[in-house]
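mind reviewing both lines:
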Amino acid sequence: MVGVGAGPDTTAEWWTTSDVAAYLGVKVATVSNYRKRGQMPEPDATVGRTHMWRPSRVVSWHENRPRPGVGGRPSPVSTGVSEPDVSSG
């Protein structure tokens, strides 16, 4: 699978939070929140305040993470909750 966004080099040795955000196509704050909430792998290394991941680990996690309606949260259509019947009669 190719990265979601036009992102960093997948053959690089390390990715920073900015690289992960570029790969996922999200903002840096989103990656920081994923990390803080335990929704992504812990950094493989931290230098000062810079968190770093091995690109292969991020790619593998991203390819296998649950998606709405695909083994993760149920999509609104597949929840089995029906809309109220508004027809008269």
Remarks:
- Residues 10 and 55 are 6 Å apart (CA to CA).
